[in-house]
Amino acid sequence: MSSRAAGLLALVATVILVAFHLLERSIRERLERFGLNTVVVRETVVSESRELTVFAQAPDRLAPLASQGQKLRVRQLFVRGTTEWQNSLVVFTYPPEAFDDLAPFMSEETPLICFSETLPADALVRVIVNRQSKMAIIRRPQGWLRPLITEDMLFAPQGMWPDEERIGYIETTILQRRADALPVSHIVDAVNNFYAIERRSPPQVQSALPLIRELEKLKERQVQWRNLLAGILGLAVALVYGSIAVLEFRQNLFVTALLRSFGARRRYLFWRHLLENGLLANTAAICAVMILASLHKPLFGTLGFPGTVLNFSGDNPYTGAEILSILVWVNVGAFLSSIPILIGLRQPVGATLN
Amino acid sequence: MLSRTDVKPAQENSSTIQCREVCFRYFRQQPWIIDHFTYEFHPGITLIKGASGCGKSTLLRLMAGYLRPCSGLIFTPTGGMPGDPEFQRHDVGYVFQHLNLLPLATVTRNLTLAASLAGLDAEQTASQSAKWLRLLGIEEFAHRLPNSLSGGQQQRAAIARALVKEPLVLLLDEPTSGLDDLNTRVITRALHGYVTGPRICVISSHDSRLESSAHEVLDFNRFLPLERHLEALV
Fold first, then answer.
1. φ and ψ at A216, to 5 degrees?
2. Do A31 and A48 fall into the same domain?
3. Which of A106, A119, A190, B7 is deepest in the core (most CB within 10 A)?
């Protein structure tokens, strides 16, 4: 009964731990896709904006971020384009200073780049934006631009669709932080503070920080659950083995008392138990060592351990001294397991048998 | 509580079991269960009858050496003490109230174990086992486990185990409790056949059907305190 409960508990524990593992893997994948050092800042600029009407080119407030890593500033227009195969496209325009960053993706035929995971890579495709048809080269999103590309996107030079840009756009800045730059949290704080000082509506700042926090929280919860489950399982196992030990003790008490009632001597019964325990434990230990020694190479080889472990050129776990130490402990255990018999033998037969 | 003195003079190395001023209690806080009990059990069948808790079974265990008296002495017919393993191996057969047959051993195995511990060789063990299984009418159940037998059959198997070494002293604790008349007759007949010559059989029981089979009856109720007389009568 209790062993079944322990099995059920082990199953529940496994399910919970697997669920945690899957959740953690999903967060890690999202984190990997977005990048630990990536910060994306989005600010909406609409036609009423003073900047858009007065200044043809809005100033780049986030220009200082360039000192912290690689930075790309693009505009996401409020229109959508389509490919000749009717795939919907998010339309971005890029300024001349982004040429360097986007050059690896461009082709000689066209400055338009269509980032897509599904469309045939490196093929030219006809794209239509606001009834204007252009040719674009299809590229797979790669490198530090990847976090920005969440669906099929079209990147075109600024000024290609001036009317659409005049309606408004989302100023999007992606920063790939350098390893020696300020921490991501500092950069995020700096951007937010900067907008607050300028009394501008706060931009949408996207970074890996929430994901990291989520991951840390998950890990913390995982540790708590693991401890709890380990405690419960330990208790269940202790109960199972405790019950077995109690039953074993009572059975031995009964048998030894019965044998004593037939005149068997205490000393004989104790030595018989001790020898039996010792024989069983030593046989089991020696067999276990022999089996492990014979399976050592295939077992550890399959698990991918290095050759030094396989060929015993490092520590040899099967030396005489090691085995002797194991056998010493096995015999100590065999002796300790005979103590309950000793206790039972001290009780009068008449107190055990009715 | 038992309190009995100078019933018969006790002698060492006689063919009797002698109890001299025996006192016993299980715990110090308890009153004496057996208080200065002196008695001599002679060859033949002695029936100890009395109410529950008056100390009948305890006295049997003391005589078998399974308990040690708090004070006083018990001498076996061989002149030794009942706690002597040699006496327990060869000279005493005991039938427990709860029988205590080994549940995972067949009836034959239960008998063989007792016989081999008594020092009987394989041939003697086989012949003795067959004899007592036949006399007690359970030879057809010889290879069955005790749990698969009826109460009466188990009782007879336990008696067979006690008799297999043909002990000098046979002690039976409630051997017929819960048994029908037929089973009781089978057991008493077997006991009558066995208890001859110097053999001593002491039966602790409140079964009045056994009174006619006993050579001597020891009524423990008379040693009970006054307040428990009514309980004993009921």
1. -65, -40
2. no
3. A119
Quick check: is B194 in a domain?
yes
Q: In the 8-state DSSP scheme, what is residue B78?
A: T
Residue B173's CATH number? 3.40.50.300
Q: Are residues A189 and A51 in the same domain?
A: yes
Beta B200-204 vs B44-49: how paired, if at all? parallel
Backbone torsions φ then ψ of B212, nearest 5 degrees: -70, -20
Query: What domain range includes position A345?
Result: 265-352
- Tell me phi and psi for residue A340, to 5 degrees: -55, -35
Distance from the Cα of A312 to chain B's closest Cα (Å) equals 48
Predicted confidence (pLDDT) per residue in B123-156, tens digit: 999 999 999 999 888 889 989 999 998 888 899 9
User: Are B98 and A353 a contacting pair, CB within 8 Å?
Assistant: yes
**pLDDT tens digits along B11-51:** 445 688 999 988 988 888 888 888 888 889 999 999 998 87
Tell me, yes or no, if A267 comes closer than 8 A to chain B by beta carbon. no
Taking the Cβ of residue A33 and every Cβ of chain B, the question of whether any pair is shorter than 8 Å is answered with no
Query: Is residue A32, in this structure, part of any structural domain at all?
Result: yes
A173 burial via Cβ count (<10 Å: 0-12, 13-18, 19+): buried
Q: Is residue A69 located within the same domain as residue A9? A: no
Residue A193 maps to a domain: yes
Nearest residue on chain A to B26, judged by CA atoms?
A351
Task: Let me know whether A52 and A181 are in one domain.
Answer: yes
Asked if A354's CB is within 8 angstroms of B117's CB, the reply is no
A60 and A168 in a single domain? The answer is: yes
Number of H helices, E strands in chain B: 7, 9
Residue A32 and residue A3 in one domain: yes
ipTM: 0.84
